């Protein structure tokens, strides 16, 4: 039996030693000797840690003190200089009288386990850093759509969301969205992608690309869904701008082709008029050339106005003076078309705050539109365009009325839409820009028109510079009021 | 009208374009009728029975595409040659190429048009 115990002692897969009260090693197993060398006459702290005196915290010392088992984690160094992490357990060895005569110390090598733990901690930390720092919103929802985890980006833009429903946090809704990619993933366990419009805590709208992924338990059941939303607002804005730019180029090139065709026509009339000695034809041709050159100029100014998002340069303006300037600008054009351009009711208009250059461009566009409406009327002569002023204490009104071809319902509805033109040579910029200018001034343009009966634009602007809240954040979104 | 004189219907909403084409054609011995939109064009065609139509595409009221379809659907009018004259080249070509049942127009000119281009095409189609 004696031999059996010795064999077991030697074969134990740990470092096993017997120590006396002074921590001198009395016996040790084969594995201990192999790793730490001969122990005869040496102390535990010398062998394990190459120290000259005992360790401050020592499980063996505690066992001698209280007779109990103790354990601690330690780092020790082997003969070959390798540092090992060990789990140390100590237990007393009693004599027949029950007195503690020695202590047994068993040290299990847990170096591998420790390095795995370290790796795990590092990977958890990396995962958390990734979760928090990744430039998209990430939240984890439970099967009832409650947010149970959210990353920093999410909380920064949507506020404190833990415990709230995702549809509340993302969209300020009271009920789940339809369809809901999170619900779809809960139902079929597969990832889903959708583009959504969400509302951040400060009320701004964001375009996000949402991707969901199931979070599974060990048994494969779905315990939640991770929702990752990449903010693609800038991409969408850029896309919109590019689309608009494409439309602008298309519309401008169409319009330019029409104007160049007019110029070709004018040149033909001039050249053939000279060849025939027909002065009337020469004059008519030259007028055509001039008219089309003016239209090219006004088109260029519209394009420039469209290209720059101008902030009004506020100044005090006299409505009568502004209207007078516009009529002056447009008079020769009206004469050439045989249209009477009149200015009425100057007195009540008074002064107002606005960007003079922009307001003149706004009114010139309306007058030009009215002149075109007269030009396109089947009956050529006797038309008139009236620029009438008015207003009250708060508002100044400019009314541009013509007796031209008028607009049908579709044209009325689309009149202020970007790139819409009913004229073969229109860019679809003029009225859009007039509307944009009116809105940038906190005002609006009303439109009354019927086919064959003419058109009336009513521009109403506040006399005082409006406060920032009264101004549209994006004047390009809504159209003006339109009446039949 | 002198014997054998051909009549051409000029359809365009832009008065400058109408004046241009009408003058060029009349200077070269053709009779002309003009219309400023699609509806007027259909009225004039019925009355004047032109030998050829020059047709703009973008117009208020009825567009050139609508007029073209109507012409091709009408037994009595489908043989009148049509020259499309427009600034929106690609759109119309695309429109026609996606509709097999509508045959392509006999002529196609892109604005701005040179007088010789127009005359050459007209002579080719009606002499």
In this structure, how is the largest beta sheet of chain B organized? 5 strands, parallel
Which two chains form the greatest contact, residue counts included? A-B, 32 and 27 residues
Number of discrete helical segments of chain B? 5
Provide the residue-averaged pLDDT of chain A.
88
What's the count of strands of chain B? Answer: 5
Percent of residues of chain A in helical segments? 40-55%
- Strands side by side in the biggest sheet of chain B: 2-1-3-4-5
CATH topology of chain B: Rossmann fold
Describe what this molecule looks like in 3D.
The complex is a heterodimer of chains A (484) and B (127). Chain A has 484 residues and is α+β, with helices and mostly antiparallel strands. In chain A, 42% of the residues lie in helices and 26% in strands. Chain A contains 14 helices and 18 strands. In chain A, strand 3 and strand 4 (83-94) form a beta hairpin. Chain B is of the alpha/beta class and 127 residues long. In chain B, strands 2-1-3-4-5 form a 5-stranded parallel β-sheet, with helices on both faces. In chain B, strand 3, helix 3 and strand 4 form a beta-alpha-beta unit.
């Amino acid at each position: 039996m004696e031999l059996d115990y010795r064999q077991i002692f030697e074969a134990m897969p740990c470092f096993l030693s017997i120590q006396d009260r002074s921590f001198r090693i009395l016996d040790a197993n084969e594995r201990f000797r192999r790793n730490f060398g001969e122990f005869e006459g040496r102390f535990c702290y010398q062998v394990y840690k190459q120290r000259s005196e005992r360790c401050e915290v020592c499980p063996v010392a505690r066992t001698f003190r209280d007779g109990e088992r103790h354990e601690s984690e330690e780092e020790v160094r082997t003969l070959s200089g390798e540092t090992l992490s060990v789990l140390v357990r100590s237990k007393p060895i009693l004599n027949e009288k029950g007195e503690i005569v020695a202590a047994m110390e068993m040290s299990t090598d847990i170096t591998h386990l420790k390095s795995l733990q370290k790796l795990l901690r590092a990977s958890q930390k990396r995962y958390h850093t990734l979760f928090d720092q990744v430039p998209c919103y990430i939240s984890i929802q439970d099967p009832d759509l409650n947010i149970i985890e959210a990353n920093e980006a999410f909380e920064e833009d949507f506020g404190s969301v833990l415990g709230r429903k995702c549809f509340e946090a993302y969209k300020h809704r009271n009920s789940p969205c339809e369809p809901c990619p999170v619900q779809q993933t809960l139902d079929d366990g597969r990832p889903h992608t959708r583009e959504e419009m969400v509302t951040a805590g400060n009320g701004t709208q964001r375009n996000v690309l949402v991707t969901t992924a199931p979070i599974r338990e060990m048994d494969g059941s779905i315990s939640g869904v991770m929702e990752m939303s990449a903010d693609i607002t800038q991409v969408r804005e850029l896309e919109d701008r590019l689309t608009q730019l494409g439309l602008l180029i298309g519309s401008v090139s169409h319009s330019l082709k029409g104007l160049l065709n007019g110029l070709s026509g004018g040149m033909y009339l001039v050249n053939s008029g000279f060849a025939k000695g027909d002065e009337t034809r020469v004059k008519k041709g030259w007028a055509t050339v001039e008219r089309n050159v003016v239209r090219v100029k006004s088109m260029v100014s519209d394009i420039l106005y469209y290209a720059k998002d101008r902030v009004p340069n506020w100044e005090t303006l006299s409505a009568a003076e502004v209207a007078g300037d516009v009529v002056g600008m447009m008079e020769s054009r009206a004469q050439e078309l045989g249209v009477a351009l009149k200015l009425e009711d100057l007195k009540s208009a008074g002064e107002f705050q606005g960007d003079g250059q922009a307001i003149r461009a706004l009114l010139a566009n309306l007058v030009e539109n009215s002149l075109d409406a007269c030009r396109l009327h089947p009956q050529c002569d006797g038309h008139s365009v009236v620029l009438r002023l008015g207003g009250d204490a708060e508002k100044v009104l400019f009314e541009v009325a013509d007796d031209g071809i008028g607009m049908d319902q579709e044209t009325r509805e689309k009149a202020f839409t970007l790139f819409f033109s009913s004229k073969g040579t229109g860019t679809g910029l003029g009225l859009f820009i007039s509307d944009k200018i009116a809105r940038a001034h906190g005002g609006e343009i009303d439109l009354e028109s019927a086919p064959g009966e003419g058109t009336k634009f009513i521009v109403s602007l506040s006399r005082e510079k409006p406060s920032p809240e009264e101004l549209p954040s994006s004047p390009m979104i809504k159209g003006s009021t339109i009446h039949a | 009208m002198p014997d054998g004189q051909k009549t051409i219907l000029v359809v365009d909403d832009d008065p400058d374009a109408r004046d241009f084409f009408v003058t060029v054609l009349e200077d070269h011995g053709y009779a002309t009728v003009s219309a400023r939109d699609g509806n007027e064009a259909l009225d004039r065609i019925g009355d004047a029975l032109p030998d050829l139509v020059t047709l703009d595409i973008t117009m208020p009221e009825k567009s050139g595409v609508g007029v073209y379809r109507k012409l091709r659907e009408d037994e009595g009018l489908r043989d009148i040659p049509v020259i499309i004259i427009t600034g929106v080249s690609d759109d119309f070509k695309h429109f026609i190429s996606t509709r097999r049942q509508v045959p392509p127009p006999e002529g196609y000119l892109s604005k701005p048009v040179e007088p010789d281009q127009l005359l050459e095409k007209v002579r080719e189609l009606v002499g």
